[in-house]
Design brief:
The termini are close together. The protein is mainly α. The protein has six helices and no strands.
């Protein structure tokens, strides 16, 4: 799946964006698991860099619609998670909402279906983990959502499109 929807885009720019996303993903998973925080100092610059790099890749390939897909992916994932945050602020953090924009930008390069399925898979994975926590009798235990959102993104990025 690591093949962008534009065969014309310079392969080095999307690869750069995904490489940076991989590094940031590891940092964010470790931080969220240890501290239950997704620091703005990491998430916001990573999101800006992803949008910029992927927009330049789309522009140099002569595919402005691809740049729009990246932006819409970021905004769409952010918006969907913001709705969850507003409905359940005690269960869903603001950092998770901002992380959704980062995830959505990368998935947006591959199309709206990738954004929807990647984010949805993150929610499903978190739900399965929550059921496991309840089954283990650890009621009241909180789970950081960031690792699950990133897992959903990476599963989608690494799974061939059908």
């Amino acid at each position: 799946m690591l093949r962008p929807s534009s065969a014309d885009a310079p392969s080095s720019l999307p690869a750069l964006a995904l490489s940076l996303f991989a590094v940031v993903s590891v940092v964010l998973v470790i931080t969220d698991v240890r501290r239950r925080r997704l620091p703005d100092v990491v998430v916001l610059p990573a999101t800006a860099a992803a949008v910029l790099i992927l927009a330049v890749a789309a522009a140099t390939a002569g595919r402005p619609a691809l740049a729009a897909a990246v932006a819409f992916g970021a905004v769409g994932a952010f918006g969907a998670c913001l709705v969850v945050r507003l409905s359940r602020p005690e269960a869903f953090g603001g950092g998770d909402v901002k992380l959704a924009a980062l995830v959505g930008a990368h998935l947006g390069w591959f199309g709206p279906e990738a954004v929807a399925s990647g984010v949805a898979f993150g929610f499903v994975a978190a739900g399965v983990a929550a059921v496991g926590v309840l089954a283990a009798g650890a009621r009241g235990t909180s789970l950081p959502f960031g690792p699950f959102l990133l897992l959903g993104a990476w599963v989608r990025l690494l799974t061939p499109a059908s």
